[in-house]
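Co-fold these.
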Amino acid sequence: MAEVTLDDILSAAERLSNIASVTPVMTSATMDGITKAGVVLKCENFQRTGSFKFRGAYNTLAKMSMEKGAAGVLTYSSGNHAQALALAGRLLDVPVTVIMPSDAPRVKAEATLDYGAEIIEYSRDEITREELAAAVAKERSLPIIPPYDHPDIVAGQGTVGLELISAFPGLDDLIVCCGGGGLLSGCAIAVKSKSPNTRVIGVEPEAADDATRSFYSGELVTIRDPVTIADGARTPSLGSVTFPLVLRHVDEMVTVSEQEIVDAMRFLWERMKIVVEPTGALATAAILSGKVEVAGKQVGAVISGGNVDLKRALSLLYSTGKAS
Amino acid sequence: MAEVTLDDILSAAERLSNIASVTPVMTSATMDGITKAGVVLKCENFQRTGSFKFRGAYNTLAKMSMEKGAAGVLTYSSGNHAQALALAGRLLDVPVTVIMPSDAPRVKAEATLDYGAEIIEYSRDEITREELAAAVAKERSLPIIPPYDHPDIVAGQGTVGLELISAFPGLDDLIVCCGGGGLLSGCAIAVKSKSPNTRVIGVEPEAADDATRSFYSGELVTIRDPVTIADGARTPSLGSVTFPLVLRHVDEMVTVSEQEIVDAMRFLWERMKIVVEPTGALATAAILSGKVEVAGKQVGAVISGGNVDLKRALSLLYSTGKAS
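Predicted complex below.
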């Protein structure tokens, strides 16, 4: 089993120094008033490429380039990991190829191309991305850098937690969204190492609660194509690297409804003036909905990203949501 | 003529210490790449009540309370100043009455009420707000705190420039939106005092260029009810306090089109992940449109606020603007 330690996260932090942004932390007197808590939001929507994914992608590619050179790398992603790896490749001068479904949002494909990556499109009906990735990797002799299930990805994402707990050493709770578990497990390792009494809590959409069920049953649960607006949490299951790490280092998992995600998004946009994607609002949703009881506590929550089509976001805010 | 000096702004900064937020500065590698400049954005959209207006309102009310007590104050505003003064009144325990048109946006009236102010509605067809304010002020013996044309308001808004130039002492240009001229003149006084070589440039919408015309002609120009999405710049003219200050301390005025405002808003929302109201995007619009030539320079720009109805913002971004 792949172990990831605080040392791995500290090494990642060194690699990311002056490359990734040390993202700001934001607070809101209004949120503190509502929750009767002190809430600090770690804003990875302000990270390069608009999400925390840049940390893991750059860490993994930089380590690989250093250790054995990299003539090129391959990944599969229609989302934030694709843009993140594309930029990492450009900065490290390593060609990046991304396998992306032909129906991926145009803006995401364009951002990935803008960063200089090559895209190979496929039809979801004809082949899975893992099958195609394996074939392309073999044909072109390219190593695959997966979106989350890799120790160096976990270590990179863990720098989010490291920065937060270094700035706020006395946090009672750290609340983190969970898709494939890379961000959650990385943050849990960093935070538990530096502050063993801080509780680390993962958050999923109700409709995509595979990690929550896996966590409480101890058996890996898979949910394919769950219907949730939080696209970063549509991953079918935790991975072989991340599942054991989540089991060992995370204290609790909770779920939130689609309405709670939309309400949290609206709060973040309207009151805090920050653009947050649905997955990025999961931790805030857990706090505002009361799914995590925070009154009287000092609490950190991770805003994972802000890559959302504005038109789609606003239609979410004004159809699912109650009138503002 | 009312003078406002660096000392007044330093006194305002003391009054605002630990009350107003020292707002963060944001940068964007993408913006720097597009403009070939180093651009720092001073983010007053993250200020309490969502705009810089809190600084001037609190400074004025705190000084008034200290010097002669304040049993209550009156203002007229349908926008950010109303919310700002309402919160200042709550914090200083001074009752605030706001004269607001009956057709003001519901969200703005609600926010003002939430902060504990009393609202007196009037019909724009029947009476001007200045006439009604004078009558109510006399009847209730309440002093009026106007939205911009007051030395203590100017001094409070000047703390925006003071914070920015203290953090970035070598700025070549400072670019600031202009409505009634309180923010622009206050920032100009602070910045010119600390850094005489920094050029201070005001920005207006083309359709509401009263201050630009006043600046270049030396005669106060009035434009009533200009048609622009930048509602904070719909003020008919500079005031008797702000006009001379703008003439003396500002170096240049430029205008931007409605399309340029929308394009800047879209950039700020999509790429920088911050919610900015149209007026708040004026300075960025001047940079991105090339109306101010910034290549090779270190440039500061003020984002004045983020109070925008999200639904309305969507319709702006996707009707006036080009497809994204």
